[in-house]
């Protein structure tokens, strides 16, 4: 096909290409001696190969891609930048993943452990609640009012930060809010309230900011000490700052 048919040919469309291919096979390629079999392909097909053919299946076969994936700690397997949940007891194990145009099915050996509609947008997550551990399922059941009440118990700064996160009309940042509230389990309510107060003060009411403040211990410093070494640039004059008279000379 590459060397004997395609060179120097032009096609007006798919129908014209099929017509030219059929004429080439029947009148030229099929009637000359093949270099491997030393027979004419059309004659060999009629005498040997035709009897070996079987009927096509009634249902067309479903094409699929197979891949192996490891179950992450959040009970999800990644495939093509999307994430699919499996039962959390399988965390750390390698599973086979079968992806068709419409479905993604995960197997442990011969056993199907999860099936999801295939996602098309990178970064998407398909999660079945029962796949998560009981503690995570409990968090999934909490609504915005529960989160606000929990934040209010921690302190006014935490409540203000959570309220700001929920104030996004485009997307309710439930996962970020739950992440902030979970920090209480590791750092305690007092430190979490101080970290939220610092994040609010500097205009960064986000989960990442609160987590970083707690990790670096900045919640235990006064707001004045939070400036870095560049603070003198703004309070005492810049190192390379020159007045107008000097510049114009």
UniProtKB/TrEMBL annotation:
InterPro entries the UniProt entry points to: IstA-like_C
Domain spans labelled Transposase for insertion sequence element IS21-like C-terminal: 56-127
Pfam family membership, one: Mu-transpos_C_2
PANTHER family: TRANSPOSASE RV3428C-RELATED
Name of the molecule in the record: Integrase catalytic region
Organism: Caballeronia humi
């Amino acid at each position: 096909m590459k060397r004997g048919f395609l060179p120097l040919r032009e096609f007006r469309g798919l129908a014209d290409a099929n017509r030219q291919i059929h004429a080439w096979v029947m009148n030229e390629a099929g009637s000359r001696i093949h270099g491997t079999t030393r027979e004419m392909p059309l004659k060999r097909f009629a005498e040997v190969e035709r009897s070996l053919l079987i009927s096509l299946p009634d249902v067309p076969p479903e094409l699929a891609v197979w891949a192996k994936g490891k179950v992450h700690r959040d009970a999800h397997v990644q495939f093509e930048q999307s994430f699919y949940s499996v039962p959390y007891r399988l965390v750390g194990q390698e599973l086979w993943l079968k992806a068709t145009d419409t479905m993604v099915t995960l197997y442990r050996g011969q056993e199907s452990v999860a099936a999801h509609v295939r996602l098309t947008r990178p970064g998407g997550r398909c999660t079945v609640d029962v796949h998560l551990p009981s503690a995570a399922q409990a968090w999934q059941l909490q609504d915005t009012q529960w989160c606000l009440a929990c934040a209010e118990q921690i302190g006014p700064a935490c409540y203000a930060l959570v309220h700001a996160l929920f104030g996004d009309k485009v997307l309710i940042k439930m996962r970020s809010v739950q992440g902030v509230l979970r920090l209480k389990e590791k750092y305690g309510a007092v430190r979490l309230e101080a970290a939220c107060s610092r994040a609010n003060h500097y205009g960064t009411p986000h989960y990442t900011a609160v987590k970083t403040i707690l990790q670096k211990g900045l919640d235990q410093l006064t707001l004045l000490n939070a400036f870095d070494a560049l603070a003198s640039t703004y309070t005492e004059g810049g190192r390379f700052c020159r007045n107008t008279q000097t510049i114009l000379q």
